[in-house]
Each structure stands twice: as C-alpha cells, then as structure tokens.
C-alpha cells in the first residue's frame, strides 16, 4: 500500500506538506546501512497510543513510522528512503483535512479525512 500522509505530525517531522509512505510486511524490512534511532510522537488517539518513528542515527532522516509499542505485521517506510524511490505511486491521501493551502494534492487520488476505511 502506498499513500501520502498529510497529518500535522508528519508535516512537523519532515518540514514538508506530507510524507509519502509505503506499508510493507515488518518481516520484509531490512536496513542495509547504519542503524535507527527511535522517537515517539502522539497520534490522533492521544499519548497512550504513540507512533514509533525510526530515524537514521547518522543523518536524522526519517526512515520508518506508524509502528507502535505492540508489534504489528506491517510497518510504514518513507518512500524517499527506499533504494528505488521512483517506484512509489500514491494510491490515496490520508489526513487530507490537515493539508496546507499551499499543498498541491493530486486531485485524482481518493482523499480521507483521517485513516482510510478498513
């Protein structure tokens, strides 16, 4: 699954209007160089349900996100951190109501106010 997250936390973490995300099976993730340093940020569910976000310990670039204290079968990886980011093709936008007025979202992509329906 590939999408753009426009939530305020992703905006603050990246300094940009959104973050392009690829969901992958957790077992398929392999960091080929360096290590991750983790930070926790609040979610719309509050402080009791923080998101675990992984950053490159050397340069500080965001690599992973959407993880939680309870292991999940999937994890989010930033598209720009992939070996071949040109393969990223967003399927929809989430937290579209948080998008900035200067964020030029693709009008062809489905928009969700928060998370997409399951």
What's the structural blueprint in terms of helices and strands?
Blueprint: E1 2-5, H1 8-14, E2 19-25, E3 36-43, E4 46-56, E5 62-67, E6 74-78, E7 92-94
- Roughly how many Å apart are the termini? 13 Å
How many beta strands in the DSSP annotation?
A: 7
Order of SSEs? EHEEEEEE
Largest sheet: 7 strands, mixed
Strand content: 35-45%
What is the subunit organization of this protein?
single chain
Q: State the low-pLDDT regions, or none.
A: none
Structural class by secondary-structure content: mainly beta
Form type = globular
Helix content: under 10%
Summarize model confidence as the mean pLDDT.
90
Strand order of the largest sheet: 3-4-5-6-2-1-7
Radius of gyration: 14 Å
The number of distinct helices, counting runs of at least 4 residues, comes to: 1
Write up what this structure looks like.
Helix content is 6%, strand content 37%. The protein contains 1 helix and 7 strands, in the order βαββββββ. It has a 7-stranded mixed β-sheet with strand order 3-4-5-6-2-1-7. A hairpin with a 5-residue loop joins strand 4 and strand 5. The longest helix is centred in the first third of the chain and has 7 residues. The protein is globular and about 35 Å long. The model has no long low-confidence stretch (mean pLDDT 90).
């Amino acid at each position: 699954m590939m999408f753009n997250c426009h939530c305020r936390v992703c905006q603050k973490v990246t300094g940009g209007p959104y973050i392009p995300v690829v969901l992958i099976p957790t077992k398929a993730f392999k960091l080929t160089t360096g290590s991750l340093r983790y930070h926790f940020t609040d979610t719309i569910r509050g402080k009791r349900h923080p998101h675990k976000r992984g950053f490159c310990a050397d340069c500080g670039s965001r690599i992973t996100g959407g993880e939680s204290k309870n292991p999940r079968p999937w994890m989010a990886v930033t598209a720009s951190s992939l070996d071949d980011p040109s393969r990223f093709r967003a399927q929809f936008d989430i937290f579209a109501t948080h998008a900035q007025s200067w964020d030029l979202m693709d009008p062809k992509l489905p928009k969700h106010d928060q998370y997409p329906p399951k």
